[in-house]
Structures
1.
Amino acid sequence: MASLLFLRLVVPLALLLLPLSRSAMVVTHLPGFHGRLPFHLETGYVNVDEETGTELFYYFVESERSPDTDPVVLWLTGGPRCSSLIFYEVGPMKFVLAPYNGSLPELAYNPDSWSKVASIILLDSPVGTGFSYARDIESHRDVGDFSSTLHIITFLNKWFIDHPRYQSNPFFVGGSSYAGKMSPIIAQHISQEIKQGKQPRINLKGYLVGNPITDSMFYDNNFQISYAYGVGIISSQIYEAAMRNCKGNYIRPRNKMCAMVLNTIEDLISEIEKEHILGIKCEHDLLRRRFLSEEYTQQSELSTEQPAINCNAYRYYLSDIWANMDSTRYALGVKQGTIGEFKRCKKVCPIHLMPRAA
């Protein structure tokens, strides 16, 4: 009788503690947000490589409209190696932009979240990004685009097996910046698995990219001259001079006149905020970055200098502070001891600058 009473008391307590040790949990409250979250949020890990102990961390935000029929979108952040926290781009939360005074950054609901019309899977990929980790630390360094793609395919297959409710929903692979390279490859792999009859059968409908990286040197950067002219950053006279002297090759100038006009264009573009051309130019960014590409505009370190509030990077500054708090990691179900300091982006990519005239 005593043992039965013990089970009745202890087992319910164990069930209450279980979500903190499982691979997935429902999050109803977040530090910095007052009250219960106005959307369904699930976080968790999926093991994608048994040998290296690689586990990818995800955020799943269920559609606030009709989750049984609305699309499911996998959204990948660029970088590469930038975390997909729910505050960036398409997610349901945002930071209250107030001067940071050492306390917990405050959060607010984002009324423009894609979760208004779709369920979103935000994934920290590749391993070593955000809260994703591996038991074998070398796997953080060795993972490339191809192996990362295979990890994501494994993640999706396991995730849909664990979430059969969404298997029939229209599914899209999406992402920004560097994910422009990854999204089509992932979609192709899924399409091949569908043709082979593999299970689970993901209801792939397509892929979508935002400001995508394709081939930075020969395609993306080369077309930024036309883009700069199209949005009014450079005049028609300068654009015509570039076309006349560079003959469509804006990467490696082959004559002095081409180099001079490209230098002029680079100087003009350096006057704007490259991530958001209508935003405020932020002087805290000391690196000269190549034109309008997002590939090299991500913060890789927790800055010791607070950027101005009206700078786009200020929310990145707040996110690093927020994600490094113990209360945040506890609320998200982050496994203790798996990562050290959280950095939104953990790798600095090389910066390709246009050659300047002598």
2.
Amino acid sequence: MISNSQYLEALLKNDTKIILAIYKNNFYKVKSFVLNNKGQEVDAEDVFQKALLQLAVRYKKEKFVINSSFDIYFFTVCKNLWRRELNKSKIKVTKDGVMELRDENEDIAMAILEQKRWELFSESLKLLSENCRLVLKLYFSKSSYSDIVEKLKYNSETVARQRVFKCKTKLKEIIKKDKRFKALHKL
């Protein structure tokens, strides 16, 4: 079995065998996600390539550690890149004409920054109690307060709202105390 660091090293060394394994294990998931979210197969291919490039560039610059499986991490990078593409396409045309598209290096840098923010958020979430993680998972997946009451056996929607508020507040505190927060917050 290939370790996370071996995957990252393979990207730097352009190891065809391991890169093909990454394609084999991950492309169908990325393609499915993109197709289900207003994209086409060519978009999935572009996102996949950008994700590989993003990971290689970031790993070359700073030898970071992936704390989940490589496949889960890679899929998250791809999802974030596709969401970013969807958001960019919304703002390309303005009343003054077409906005200038960002250069590729700036785009990679912004994607890396967003990935680092996502990592900080995910790591901070893990520091919460199991109950808070569950409450926020339901909240972030847009479950209604009545669903939260039902699933977590709370007494009322007011209790659910208070619990969501307290858990979100605790999560914000954890994120803001992290030494990475200031650097990631500036842009």
3.
Amino acid sequence: MLDKAPLPHGMDLAHENFAVSGPDLILGGVSVRAVAEEFGTPAFIYDGGVMRRHYRALAETLSGFAAVHYSVKANPLREIIALFLAEGAGVEIASVGEYRAARAAGARPEQILFAGPGKRQRELEEVIGEGIGEIHLESFEEAERVDRIGEALGKTIKVGLRINPVPSAQAGAMRMGGKPTAFGFCEEDLAETIARIGGHAHVDLVGIHVYGGSQILDAQGLIDQWRHAIGIAAETARLLGRPLETIDLGGGLGIPYYAGEKSFDLATLKAGLPDLAALLAADPLLADARVVVEPGRFIAGPGGIYVAEINAVKNARGTRFAVTDGGMHHHLAASGNLGQIIKRNYPILAPARMNDAAVVATTVVGPLCTPLDTLGRDVMLPELGAGELVAVLQSGAYGPTASPGNFLSHPPAVEVLVEDGRAHLLER
């Protein structure tokens, strides 16, 4: 018996994460076609059940080793944050706006970690005044601000040090350290940094935060990065002369966007955790520390799609174009203009023509007056026409809030959450 041919990229992810019924892609028990008809396009549609599954798979993998804090920057919608809180996650924020969103979603102050290289005075005053679990310091000026606010309020503020690791500890498509960067304090300056931070009476240094890279698909690379971070934690505790309370290993777990990429292997990650746990247990200054991992796209990304309606189809000098009502102003990442050097396609398919085997190379573009507004180049799609739908998968993270939404003053995309056969509109 011959093995079945592998599904094309996009179709494999559709079947992995969602359901297909005849011609229709189904999210949360509702067809994409029905959601588009009820709420209109362009639309981000989020399947709450898929997000829960990805969270649970990661939480089970990390059970007994690390707690999961949802990185709000990936998708700051209140109901998305609330979904992960209900699953047992804490949250990680990078602005007072995200703090407010997390609190509105039901997060308790002690569940919130605050990172980011440019925290403003007013932001710090608000989060410290209302309550915060831990602030991750990224500059000496920030330490001074926190100290002054603590003095004014008559309390001591728990902080962690964001450490920029050495180049050998990096991984991922976007390197967050190992080079000159605005993020955190350099690893090689650790002793001096701790000495200076220790001079603040209202700052209680209780942990570290090491985040070396983003969009990591190599599980072994992430394990190696975490091992290095534990070494930094051990040196920090030694220099402090007391145990650490928190070791934040950052996020960075990636999802497959492009053809040929494989999903992050949780089994490999799980197999590597006992050695890391043994390192912690062997050091009395780390044995009781709370380890934190802060994923965003890994748990939110696969559960979302971006849907646009075709407005016109044209052929120009041998290229077939489908012009849609959506584009990079809603989904900059899918256009390749959010950090890509070489433009590659996100997985794109026709969510109401899933059983159509006949395909033609189609370049999918938006309505903006720039050639940058291209969602997919030579995508193999059915021979679609005006009024039909295209969907960009892996779109639950870094969508509207990572895009130039006001460019050319087009209206925003609607956002819809579907779960258990029910769909409802979300508000920012």
